[in-house]
Design a protein that fits this description.
mainly alpha; 2 domains; 66% helix
Amino acid sequence: MPWPTWQQSAVAAAVFALLIVGFRRARPNRFTTTLALAATEMMIISVLYSIWRMARKLPLVQADGAIDRGRSIAEWQDRFFLPSELKVQEVLVDNDWLGRLASLYYIGLHVPALWVFLVWLFLRQRHAFPRWRNALAILTAFCLFIRFVRVAPPRFLPELGFIDLPAVYDLSPYGVVGTGVSQQFAAMPSIHVAWAAIVSIGVVASSTSRWRWLALLHLIITMVVVAGTGHHWWADGLIIAPLLVAALAIDHYGRRVITPLTNRYSVTPGGQTRGGNQSRQIGRIVRGGGRS
């Protein structure tokens, strides 16, 4: 199934904007306030997605040498004694049921797990929602621009023994190179691992349940699956760690700069509000508030 286009996402953002206006004009209560906040977050996500889809069309792609870059990563990993992705793939190939399960995990849980996380965060841990929404946007932007320099995944190096495992089970989401749901030479960094890191670490950081540590399994399994199916090198996932730290730091220090500005806009020296509900709402969204 094709991903939504930037135009479709822009239309969705406009629809959510109209819903926000409608909910704001309705009789204020807990229900309409929550719906207005939900529509606001959906509008933000739709706008960010639209920008992401448009940015992918920028004429910055360096596709020449993608295969050679893939080989260089394999050689670099060997020098640092990282275990070969091929060993994981051999286990999946030798155990047919495990290989099929890994292929289904690769194509089936990438986006749904992220949406479940965002919905859970909004409903149960709303104070943490802006932080992880912002981290998701910043981390995805990092991945987008790094991926302008194309790197071939292991499955494009059959001379090393790799195969496209989901294709064996007729489960591959990709078609001919240049078609399908993603650029197939854009392996570095791994968006799969990036979003799994947001989900897993976001749950651990936001929840107080003693079971929250089980969420880390999603990140661990995703790392193993993307390598074992032939879609990513270990390095494609390992690079996500410093990028996520940088994204969280940018969000943290960015809000420390923006919060005083929104407060200054909201209250005049005489104690009168300036900008009213709109500025206060902006402040809540940026600071991480918005509790209903």
